[in-house]
Prior knowledge:
Blueprint: H1 6-15, E1 20-21, E2 24-32, H2 42-48, E3 52-57, H3 60-68, E4 75-76, H4 83-88, E5 92-93, E6 117-118, E7 121-122, E8 125-137, E9 161-164, H5 167-177, H6 188-202, E10 205-209, H7 212-220, E11 226-230, H8 231-239, E12 244-247, E13 254-264, H9 271-281, H10 286-294, E14 297-298, H11 301-304, H12 309-314, E15 324-326, H13 332-346
Parallel strand pairs: 2-3, 2-4, 9-10, 9-11, 13-15
Antiparallel strand pairs: 1-3, 4-13, 5-13, 6-7, 8-11, 8-12, 8-13, 8-14
Helix pairs in contact: 1-7, 5-6, 5-13, 6-13, 7-8
Amino acid sequence: xxxxxxxxxxxxxxxxxxxxxxxxxxxxxxxxxxxxxxxxxxxxxxxxxxxxxxxxxxxxxxxxxxxxxxxxxxxxxxxxxxxxxxxxxxxxxxxxxxxxxxxxxxxxxxxxxxxxxxxxxxxxxxxxxxxxxxxxxxxxxxxxxxxxxxxxxxxxxxxxxxxxxxxxxxxxxxxxxxxxxxxxxxxxxxxxxxxxxxxxxxxxxxxxxxxxxxxxxxxxxxxxxxxxxxxxxxxxxxxxxxxxxxxxxxxxxxxxxxxxxxxxxxxxxxxxxxxxxxxxxxxxxxxxxxxxxxxxxxxxxxxxxxxxxxxxxxxxxxxxxxxxxxxxxxxxxxxxxxxxxxxxxxxxx
Length: 349
């Protein structure tokens, strides 16, 4: 899949959200819409003659609720801050890393939490990472306007902004905009300030996007000029020659995230094939496929050795000098509080 087909592919996958794309019946992958990229499971297909069966979701909380309600799959692809919920609910089991030869090539920073790795085992295999920052129409929005995250509350852009329909991402934005760069220690005062800022930002929102394809379509249509966006939607728009910039160095900063795979308990398929799938994902050749199709970085240092600095700049994943709020695991009680407050804000309360 090429970058210029990403919008259509993601939109089609999202339309299939909750349904299965049938292939090998012995492995069911519960994944983000758009991640069924052949370059990621190429070794799996070469070995078994077919792709895994995929079923899709567009939101981490939606995916967790479905699994917690009894949906059965073999592996799922949550972002890091969700892993504690899967563990606490008893929905996952440790991976046997002796069966994952490339495990030792994972950058240590992606496993630096007892939520992911403890004396009971390795609960999470990080695979991909990206950035969340300000996407903007470079022909309509002056660079000085996006030099600050206050662009989202600027009356000039009333009805012209878009935020993700994702509690984690909007709170990362709100914390940054109110001077917080670490969400692992949030006071009641910081929460209240961020919530007040989000309510103000809500007044400018034309739409909350549920998928990078939706965000990209909103911008391409001209309905939205400024969005809080993952880098993949921006990369797709740039591939279509839309005048879209990606501001990661606003005064207050930007955010980063990483995602990976959990081994779901009592999966209906083959455990051996789950390991074949992960091993295909972690081979070095998966990194160029991931970058080309989705615009994300890979967690394996050996895989990232195949990516040039110029390519990282082109997809907005280069090193920056501005503050970065890393979306690492935080207090589950805080996440629930954020989620509830976000629903109120979207409803206008």
